[in-house]
Amino acid sequence: MQATRELLAQGPRIKVFVGEFGSGKTELAVNYSLQLKQLGHQTAIVDIDLVKPYFRTRENRSLLEERGVLVVAPDRKLAHSDLPIMPENLTRILYDDQYQVVMDVGGGESAIVLGQLNRKFDENPYQAWLVVNTRRPFTNTPAAIVDVCRRIERVSRLTVSGVVSNTNLAGETTAAHIYEGLAVTEQAAGLLGLPIKWVVAPEWLAAEVKVAYPLFVLKPYTQYPWMG
After folding, report:
1. How many domains does the chain have?
2. E strand or H helix at 181, and its extent?
3. 9 in a structural domain
4. Which domain holds residue 151?
5. Residue 210 three-state SS
6. In angstroms, how far is CA 207 from the centroid of its own chain?
7. pTM of the model
8. Cα(first)–Cα(last) distance of the chain, in Å?
9. Alpha carbon distance 74, 195 (integer Å)
10. What CATH code is carried by the domain that includes residue 205?
11. Which of 74, 66, 70, 30 is nearest to 48 (CA)?
């Protein structure tokens, strides 16, 4: 079933996307932020990928800012550095209840930087969602997904409250890939005692994918080097 867009803003206003490298967190966070803004919410997206130079939210900064989303990230001059610098204005945004806040957290051990924000999260309710792509080597079995979740919770000091099934092969994704990934993710969610929050499908498959969970329709925005 396709989720109504109004569901996006339900619950705590701070949403934290965590997961392994290649899970698709950044694309999902960008889409989520843009949809919140389209619904009329003041929206900020926070880039917490501070350790590895992978595909960060700030690469989509111009697009987000043009559409009215506040981007909270290290200074532009430091955009391609790997210094452990917390984004400017982060504390102000976390405490500003006028904003819906979407946090894109770097993969793997990068989540350790969230431990520095533990007191702020204690004071500001949040939801942390584990984004899972079963086509990636570290999250291709239920046991592996459980291990990733437990490790991220340990280093970030956050509590994951739901799982997002985001199995994909970029432009080569098929409905079969999504269904196969969901079956594995369901087993992992059962082991973790967590709900499936969303099943993600690219916009060209939205009419084809039929699942028993809310469907998040994703529009690709990020241009990767191999895409030309």
Report:
1. 1
2. helix 175-192
3. no
4. 18-222
5. coil
6. 23
7. 0.89
8. 34
9. 33
10. 3.40.50.300
11. 74
